[in-house]
Specification:
two-stranded antiparallel ribbon; binds iron/sulfur cluster
Length: about 140
């Protein structure tokens, strides 16, 4: 298994019970996602182009579902060790999250059928999907 420094190809053995301790700034607390209606029409994709034009907004498709991904840090994430400032009161979605296979194992933008980092990437997809996109 490779750690989050995979781009440097440094193999390390990471056990599930100590992974979070090694995860600088708790990667999973630095973004949130929102399920959206499946885009079908040119108008739908035009709206997505508007949304992804905003800073730190990504879009991806996981199975049949489409999501907005906002790369914004949670205000309860404490510096410098990435602890949760409201640990005892943290939302259920945080409690239910497992580190069995998480962002520490694979970057957010990998492993999905479709992932768009920016306007340019999504527009390229739109032009491919809709032959008359620019008309
Ligand atoms: S669940 Fe994964 S991403 Fe979140 S703090 Fe633990 S190792 Fe990091
Ligand atoms: S509430 Fe705590 S566990 Fe949940 S995202 Fe924020 S810092 Fe992370």
């Amino acid at each position: 298994m490779l750690d989050s420094t995979a781009s440097r190809n440094i193999p390390v053995t990471i056990a599930s019970d100590n992974k979070c301790g090694k995860c600088t700034n708790s990667l999973c607390c630095n973004y949130f996602t929102q399920l959206i209606e499946t885009p079908r029409s040119k108008y739908d994709f035009d709206c997505l182009l508007w949304q992804i034009s905003h800073q730190d907004v990504n879009i991806y498709k996981d199975g049949k579902e489409w999501y907005l991904l906002m790369r914004n840090k949670c205000e309860h994430l404490m510096e410098p060790h990435g602890m949760c400032g409201i640990y005892d009161r943290r939302p259920d979605i945080c409690r239910e999250y497992t580190n069995d296979f998480c962002e520490y194992d694979q970057p957010l933008d990998e492993g999905y059928e479709l992932y768009f980092n920016n306007y340019k990437e999504l527009r390229k997809y739109c032009k491919k999907r809709f032959k008359k996109w620019d008309r």
